Every structure is written in structure tokens, then in C-alpha cells.
Amino acid sequence: MSEKPTVEVRFERVLFASRWLMAPMYLGLVVTLMMLLAIFVRDLFYYVPQVMTMSADRGILVVLTFIDLTLAANLIVIVLFSGYENFVSKLDIQDAKDRPGWMGTVDFSGLKMKVIASIVAISAISLLKRFMEIGESAADAKYGETELFWMTVIHLTFVLSGVLLAVMDWFTAKAKYSKY
């Protein structure tokens, strides 16, 4: 006795299958990861020959740039893997020993916190780089006091957003566990 699926069941199947529309976006994130790698390698080849004539301050700015690029790449990897596993499909990776420990354990709330923490770190590095450039004529021509003020305000907004997200997640978890 085979019963034909109802309109509701068919609709739900279409909705469930629509998660695969996200797959090309995750492939796009792989491309952005390659773009960051190209920028990293380009900058590395640009700065390595200058290392013996570079001032300490300039060296620190270069290192901060590389850290900034690496944090952005880490953010892409976290969103790529966690987002795919949370919203599309579990990754069927054969070599479990090479699988990062956080994979498969980061839920949407954890992903949200990792994203905001990465954004705060990237913003902090950009702000630190700007503070270190104060007094350099080229940097001062590009960034005035107004831009520095707004960079600070934006950074503090990211920090406050992260704190508020953490507090909301804490309240949600507390309410969830108080039911039991």
C-alpha cells in the first residue's frame, strides 16, 4: 500500500534539499582562501628582501599584516567547515586523525562567537597598526584624527557586540538548563 506524498511532504523535501544551494557559496569561500594566500605570498616576497634594511617598527607592522591575513584565513576556514557541517551536510573525511578537533563540535552559537572573536582580533590588529603609524607622513595623509576616531568606535562596537552575543548565549544556555 504505497501512499503518495502529500503536498506538505513534497514541500518539506524541497525545503530540505534547498540547503545544497549553499554549496557553491562554500566553494566561493575556498576561492577567497586562495585569494588571501596569493596576497600573503605576494607580500612575503615583497618584504623578505627588505628585512635587512627595515626598521623595527616597520617590521612589526609587516608581521601584524601577516597575522591579520592569517586570522582572516582562519575565519574563512572556520566558517567554511562549520557552516557546511551545520547547514548542508556532515563532512565524510576518511582520515580522522588529521581532522581538527573542533570540527563537528561547533554549533551555530559557537560559530557566531568564533566569527565575532575573529572580527574583534582583526579589528584590533588594524587599529594597532594605525596607532603605530601615527606620525608617519604617508599614513597621516591617508588617515586623519577623524578616521582614527571612527576606527576606534567601530572596534569598540565589535567588542561590545561580542560581549552582548556572549551574554545572550549565556542566558540562553542558562534558561535551557534550568528547565531540567
Automatic annotation (TrEMBL):
<dbReference type="InterPro" id="IPR020761">
    <property type="entry name" value="UPF0114_bac"/>
</dbReference>
<keyword id="KW-1133">Transmembrane helix</keyword>
<dbReference type="GO" id="GO:0005886">
    <property type="term" value="C:plasma membrane"/>
</dbReference>
<protein>
    <recommendedName>
        <fullName>UPF0114 protein EP867_03105</fullName>
    </recommendedName>
</protein>
<keyword id="KW-0472">Membrane</keyword>
<dbReference type="InterPro" id="IPR005134">
    <property type="entry name" value="UPF0114"/>
</dbReference>
<dbReference type="Pfam" id="PF03350">
    <property type="entry name" value="UPF0114"/>
</dbReference>
<keyword id="KW-1003">Cell membrane</keyword>
<feature type="transmembrane region" description="Helical">
    <location>
        <begin position="60"/>
        <end position="84"/>
    </location>
</feature>
<comment type="similarity">
    <text>Belongs to the UPF0114 family.</text>
</comment>
<keyword id="KW-0812">Transmembrane</keyword>
<feature type="transmembrane region" description="Helical">
    <location>
        <begin position="148"/>
        <end position="171"/>
    </location>
</feature>
<feature type="transmembrane region" description="Helical">
    <location>
        <begin position="20"/>
        <end position="40"/>
    </location>
</feature>
<feature type="transmembrane region" description="Helical">
    <location>
        <begin position="105"/>
        <end position="128"/>
    </location>
</feature>
